[in-house]
Amino acid sequence: MALYPPAEYAVQSLELSVPVTDLHGIPQSIFKASASKIVMPGWRAAFSDTVFDIEDEDEGQQSSSIPRMRENDQCPLLDVLLSASKTKAPAKYDQVSLLNELENIGKYETDPKLRKLLVKSKGIGTPATRPETILQLIKHGYLAVSAKGVYTSTAKGRDLIKIAPSWLTNASLTAIWEDYLIKMCETRSETELIAMKKQFVDKQTTRISELIAKVIEEHDAHKGERTVAKKPAKKPTPNMVNAIKAIAKSKGLTPDKAIFDDIRLASGFLNEHGTKKPEGYVFTPSESQISLFNKINNELPDNKKVNIESLADNKMFSDFISKNMKEIPPSVAQKALAEKLIAAMSTEDQKKVKKNVLTSSSACSKFITDTIASNKKGNRKK
Q1: How many CB atoms lie within 10 A of CB 154?
Q2: Of the CATH numbers 3.30.2140.20, 3.40.50.300, 1.10.460.10, 3.40.470.10, which one belongs to the domain with range 97-180?
Q3: Contact 98, 134 (CB under 8 A)
């Protein structure tokens, strides 16, 4: 059976400019109209016109026409009809549209930099975590879902948004964290990376602790005395203690003794009174920094060994590690694998192997990676 050709329409559009100030104060008000007319029925000829009249009415589309006009033609204004109407509320989210919205949340961000980061990270969460997060919101009563799969917020969920500060409920928080994680990934210094991680964790811990305290104070007062099992407060690090003392001395402050016994109070003091290291600040390396320093320094010849006290700040630590990392010998497993790869080489290729492959961890690691990649490439060609 032959198929009917497609239906063809003539579409008209008209834009009229009326010399009346509009609601935005613009001296010209613009009115637009459009119409369409069937010029070739095509496949529609196989059906009754009644079917299409009902269907077009349901979709708000009816065949019509407007007078043919040319650009800059003038026409008289015969009448003005006023009609009262309400703005249609946006459709509620369903199981498909909410996931799409979370992925494209960047379109609502006004800051160009944050919007770019949200677009680059493809919104909030990942395709794997978004559905599970929505299920958890439903499970804990923050979100409700109808039999048709339409989502609505609950009173509990709306109360949570009211209580939580804007920085916590704004999608830009994801962009800010993503930007910080990118900077951490680009860091080549292990000591700097450790410091960045610690700074991030300390900042979030302080903010959440302050938020919990505020919620308890503002919204739980009517429930009577609140009893919470207290855990021993975590002590601030030596670096934090030194920084607090130096800041207090330079600014003439007298910190409360409790600050030196509680890392949350110490972080709050540092956030409030400045992030720059004041005069008199003494750098104290962390345990992981000391461990890495000792591991490298022990492998150096006596004439190159340094005193840890001579490394006065993070930059000097980072420079020392970057410069001498090659002095760390390879592990037993690394060395055994490298020797096995060398043994499998031809005599000519063995002569090209660098002398420090079996003595330097970094050189050994690079040799193993390059050799395995080269062998795989050679096997593919065969």
Answers
A1: 15
A2: 1.10.460.10
A3: yes
Give the DSSP letter string of 262-299. -HHHHHHHHHHH-SS--TT------HHHHHHHHHHHTT
CB atoms within 10 A of CB 320: 19
CA atoms within 13 A of residue 110's CA, in its CB half-sphere? 1
Query: Which value, in Å, is the radius of gyration of the alpha carbons in the chain?
Result: 35
Phi, psi of 96 (to 5 degrees): -95, -50
Whether 281 contacts 243, CB under 8 Å: yes
Quick one: tokens of 277? 């290291």
Q: How much is the average pLDDT of 213-225?
A: 66
Q: Which residues contact 69 (CB under 8 A, 6 or more apart)?
A: 14, 75
Tokens at 104, concatenated: 């494209």
Instruction: Tell me 104's DSSP state.
Output: T
Q: How far apart are CA 382 and CA 377, in angstroms?
A: 9
pLDDT over 60 at 270, yes or no: yes
Look at residues 74, 175, 67, 51 and name the one whose alpha carbon lies nearest to residue 116: 175
Report whether 213 contacts 239 (CB < 8 A): no
Q: Does the model's pTM come out above 0.90?
A: no
Give residue limits of the domains in the chain: 8-59, 97-180, 194-220+232-326, 329-381
Query: Residue 98: which of 69, 134, 148, 55 has the closest Cα?
Result: 134
Q: How confident is the model over 312-347, as pLDDT tens digits?
A: 666 677 777 777 766 777 777 778 888 888 888 888
257: exposed, middle or buried (C-beta count within 10 Å: 0-12, 13-18, 19+)? Answer: exposed
